[in-house]
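Researcher: I'd like a candidate sequence for this fold, 450 residues long. If you have to choose between options at a position, lean toward the conservative one.
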C-alpha cells in the first residue's frame, strides 16, 4: 500500500508540472532571474540595497507615474522595501521637479516630498528602442504603475494588453482622473477637480461660505493609498494564480468612496450634505473653539464625555439643561450650546486650556501651524523628521513613514534621485545589456544619465 501511495504522489507531482499555467512557468523563470538582482546586496554609488530590507524586499516596481498620487503610492511601496524604478522623460523628468519655489539646489521641495527610496532612469518612451527597454524591464519586474491619460501608453505599445503578453506575471496598476472609460475618461485628472466633481469641495469650508479645498491634496493621496493596497492584494492573488492582472484606480472613484457617512446620509436618508466649517453634522460639540490667543478642537462623542467636558471647564450648569441632555438634543440646540462653550474657551490661552484638559477622557487638541506641528512633543517622540544625504544637495529632511512593523523594516533608505541617476545601473546590472548597447542607446537619444 505504501508503495502505491508513493507512486501516486510521484504521478501527481509530474501531472502538476504538465498543467502548470504558462503564467506560472514564466513567473518561476523570471523570479530566478530577478532574485539574483533584488535579493543580493548591491552597491549603487553610496546606496546599498540589502537582503530582507523590508517586507516587500525582492519586489521590483516600474514607476511610470508623475505628480502626486502615483509617486506617493510607489514611495509607500519603496518604504516597505520594494525596489522602485522611476521612469522619467529624458528632457525634464517628473513635472514636479520644477514645481517651486521653494527649491533645494536644483530640486523642488515638492519633488523631494514623495520620491525617496527610488531609482531614476530616463528613457524616451516615444522611441521604439525605448519601448523595447520597457518590455525587457517588465519581464523582470513584478509591478508596473502608471498615471498617463487613458490610451496614451496603449498607443506607445506599453498598455496592459501588450504587456500582459510580454510579461503575464505583471501586476499593472493604472491611476487616472476619471477611470479608463466613460464620458470623462479623456479629461486630465487633478486633485481639486476630482474633489469638485466628487462632492468634497461642496462640503468643505465655513457654513454659508464659499467652497474650500483641503490644505493638501487628499484626493490624490488617498488614491495613492488605494493603489498601494490594491497592488499588495494583486500580488497576494498572484501567489495563488501565478498570473498578474490589471488594477484600475481613479481620483473620482476614490473621492466618491471617501464621502462615507455623508454618502450614506444621502443615499439612505435623502439628506443633502452642507458645509459645517470645523463642526460635525451629527455630533455636538465636535469642532474648533477660539481661545484668547489661538484655537483648539474639542469633542464630546457621548453623554459621559459631555459631562466630563462641562465639569472640567466649569460649566456644570449645562448638565441641568434639558436642551443638552442627549446628543440629538445637542444637535438640535447647537447654536445655544456652542455659544456658551465659545464664551468660556475665549477666557484663557490655548496653553492654559491644554494644561486644564490634560488627561481628560474626551478628545481635544491645539490647532497647530506647520511649524508647531513639527515641534509637537508627540511628533518629536515618533521621530517623524529624518535627515538623509542627497547625492547633489547634501542633507535634506524627510517626513518619516507613518507605520512601523514589529519585525520588518519600513524606513527611508535612499534620498530622492536626481534625473537619470540609475539609468546605467538598471540597464547593465538588471537588464544585463552590454556596455556597447548602452552607449548606442545613449547616442540615439533613447536614454539619459548613462
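Model: Candidate sequence:
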Amino acid at each position: 500500500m505504501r508503495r502505491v501511495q508513493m507512486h501516486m504522489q510521484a504521478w501527481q507531482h509530474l501531472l502538476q508540472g504538465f498543467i502548470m499555467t504558462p503564467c506560472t512557468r514564466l513567473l518561476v523563470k523570471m523570479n530566478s532571474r530577478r532574485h539574483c538582482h533584488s535579493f543580493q546586496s548591491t552597491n549603487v554609488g553610496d546606496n546599498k540595497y540589502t537582503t530582507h530590507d523590508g517586507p516587500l524586499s525582492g519586489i521590483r516596481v516600474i514607476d511610470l507615474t508623475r505628480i502626486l498620487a502615483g509617486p506617493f503610492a510607489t514611495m509607500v511601496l519603496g518604504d516597505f522595501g520594494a525596489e522602485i524604478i522611476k521612469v522619467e522623460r529624458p528632457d525634464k523628468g517628473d513635472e514636479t521637479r520644477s514645481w517651486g519655489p521653494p527649491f533645494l539646489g536644483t530640486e523642488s521641495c515638492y519633488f523631494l516630498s514623495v520620491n525617496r527610496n527610488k531609482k531614476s532612469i530616463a528613457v524616451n518612451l516615444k522611441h521604439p528602442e525605448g519601448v523595447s527597454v520597457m518590455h525587457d524591464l517588465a519581464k523582470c519586474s513584478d509591478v508596473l504603475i502608471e498615471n498617463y491619460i487613458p490610451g496614451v501608453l496603449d498607443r506607445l505599445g506599453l498598455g496592459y494588453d501588450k504587456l500582459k503578453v510580454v510579461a503575464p506575471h505583471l501586476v499593472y496598476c493604472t491611476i487616472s482622473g476619471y477611470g479608463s472609460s466613460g464620458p470623462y475618461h479623456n479629461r486630465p485628472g487633478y486633485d481639486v477637480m476630482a474633489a469638485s466633481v466628487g462632492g468634497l469641495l461642496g462640503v468643505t469650508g465655513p457654513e454659508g461660505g464659499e467652497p474650500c479645498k483641503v490644505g493638501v491634496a487628499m484626493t490624490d493621496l488617498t488614491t495613492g493609498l488605494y493603489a498601494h493596497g490594491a497592488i499588495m492584494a494583486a500580488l497576494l492573488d498572484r501567489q495563488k494564480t501565478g498570473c498578474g492582472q490589471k488594477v484600475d484606480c481613479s481620483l473620482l472613484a476614490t473621492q466618491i468612496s471617501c464621502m462615507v457617512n455623508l454618502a450614506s446620509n444621502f443615499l439612505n436618508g435623502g439628506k443633502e450634505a452642507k458645509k459645517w466649517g470645523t463642526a460635525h453634522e451629527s455630533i455636538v460639540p465636535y469642532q474648533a473653539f477660539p481661545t484668547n490667543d489661538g484655537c483648539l478642537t474639542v469633542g464630546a462623542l457621548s453623554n459621559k464625555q459631555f459631562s466630563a467636558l462641562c465639569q472640567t471647564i466649569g460649566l456644570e450648569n449645562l448638565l441641568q439643561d434639558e436642551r443638552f441632555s442627549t446628543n440629538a438634543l445637542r444637535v438640535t440646540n447647537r447654536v445655544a450650546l456652542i455659544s456658551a462653550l465659545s464664551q468660556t474657551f475665549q477666557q484663557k490661552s490655548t496653553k492654559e486650556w491644554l494644561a486644564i484638559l490634560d488627561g481628560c477622557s474626551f478628545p481635544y487638541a491645539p490647532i497647530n501651524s506647520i511649524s508647531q506641528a513639527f515641534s509637537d512633543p508627540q511628533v518629536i517622540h515618533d521621530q517623524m523628521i529624518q535627515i538623509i544625504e542627497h547625492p547633489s544637495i547634501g542633507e535634506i529632511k524627510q517626513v518619516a513613514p507613518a507605520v512601523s512593523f514589529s519585525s520588518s523594516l519600513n524606513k527611508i533608505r535612499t534620498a530622492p534621485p536626481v534625473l537619470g541617476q540609475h539609468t546605467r545601473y538598471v540597464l547593465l546590472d538588471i537588464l544585463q545589456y552590454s556596455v556597447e548597447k548602452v552607449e548606442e542607446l545613449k547616442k540615439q537619444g533613447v536614454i539619459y544619465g548613462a
